[in-house]
Amino acid sequence: MPEHTPPPSAVEGFCSICPVSMEQEGDAPSCQECIRYRDLYVNAPLGIFQCDGERRFLNVNPQLAFLYGFESPEQFLANVTYVTERLQLREDELQDALGTLQREGVIHNYEVQLQRKDGSLLWTTHSIRTVTATDGSIIFYDGFVTDISEKKELEKLRDDVARMTRHDMKSPLLSIVAAARLLNKRLTLEGEEAEMLQDIHDKGAQVLEMINTSLDLFKMEQRDYQPRFEPFDMAALARSVGRSMLPAYEEKRLRFEVVVDGPEKDAERCEFEGEERHIETMLMNLVKNALEAAPEGSTITVRLNRNETFCELDVHNLGAIPKDIRPRFFQRYSTSGKPEGLGLGAYSARLITEAHGGSISYKTSEEDGTHIQVKLPCRQPKK
After folding, report:
1. Which residues belong to any copy of the PAC domain (predicted)?
2. How many CB atoms lie within 10 A of CB 179?
């Protein structure tokens, strides 16, 4: 790896720990405040860094160098120039994070893998804040990095156990569904008994479908799932999703509407392509999130459009995404203010969208609420 000349101090003319003029204090910080904070900086159990507006490292503490596998801050700065050069980020993820930092001035607990000196990957959280001058111009960024590899190992263990449990549940459920179907054919039942038997069959089939979906999502995480592309009416599917959540809408006095854009005379239909059962799961998660976030008495809108290239979906509600989860909104376990929430809805929506070769993004503000925008490729010419 080529060596780089270490950059100058982050705050030339000032102490790198607190805003005390070097001209006042000499070449090294001597005030008790500086000495105390420098000790915290050097001995902190988390990585700390400063970088300039171009994301070039300016200062790092020993723990950050250790996280990257280097022996000292000096060795680290001689070999690593940019904050992002060893982070495992897709371009769209990087742009989302930078956009949040520009808008909000801070990013909290952004989960990302970094590549260490030996090539191994380490799971970390990054929290970054903007340090500005009195005129609003950016002086530098402060960053704080925490090792969460143990947490990720526990999450993986939990996911493995859950996946094996779901897999093992399939056999008895298949037997229950098959037995209910066989009994329905062989027995002549009427009234309540017939309804109970049919209910056993339907509920068993429903749980079996949920298990199959969760196992497919695991394959999507491994990028090992090939959807079965078939045309279907997305407008009808969206209306069906809305009807299934009617009691929850009525409780908050919400309105639900499906709008089909485009020049077609038949505004009741909008043909999408993909695996319908997974697209339904994606939409149900997005609508459920919108339902929970929408203010009482407002409207949730599902807007559909299809052109020659993309099938487009926009789910809008008047609630804004909490600032603390915006940088990681589509990541797993990203939730805020919902004690019973798992933070998997937007994550699974992203998995399903990307498995279909599409993209998902959001726009959010206190004034306009939140738009979740999905683009799926069109494989067949528009009819």
Report:
1. 108-160
2. 14
